[in-house]
Amino acid sequence: MTVAERITEIALPSFSTQAQLLSDTLVAKLVGNADMTAHAPLKRYIEDLHRTAKAAQIKEAIFDFEELYFMNSSCLSLFLRLLNSLAESNGGHTYTLRFRSNPRLHWQRRSLAAVRSYAEGLVVVD
User: Fold this and answer.
1) pLDDT tens, 79-105?
2) In this structure, are residues 100 and 126 in contact, taking their beta carbons and an 8 Å threshold?
3) What is the model's pTM?
4) Which string of DSSP letters, residue by residue, matches 68-107?
5) 21 three-class SS
6) Bridge partners for 17 per DSSP
7) Helix (H, G, I), strand (E, B), or coil: what is residue 58?
8) Which domains can be identified in the chain, with CATH numbers?
9) Helix (H, G, I), strand (E, B), or coil: what is residue 110?
């Protein structure tokens, strides 16, 4: 089963995703603006990614934000929920979240620093 069969990609006019499973790494590219329109689809997407990551026993999930121009706090909180799930795995499978950021987008630096401090040891920001 391919990643495309496990994960329902998002294709909204202002927001889209694309995931790939590469060996023991899951890469998810987010493009556009993650606002309230994207919240419900992004919630399902992250849940699909997490199920796929656990099934594939990945070591790292990379979230490529290089072309993500905006994300509201409601969408950002979905990543905190994912981190809570990982922290509560009680010795079960866990993996690192790596965020590839865009240094020209100042909101990313501030927001991803907060996410990293929320779950040190589980989050890496590039």
Assistant:
1) 999 999 998 877 678 999 999 999 999
2) yes
3) 0.92
4) EEEE-HHHHHHHHHHHHHHHTSTTS---EEEEE--TT-HH
5) strand
6) 30
7) coil
8) 3-125 (3.30.750.24)
9) helix
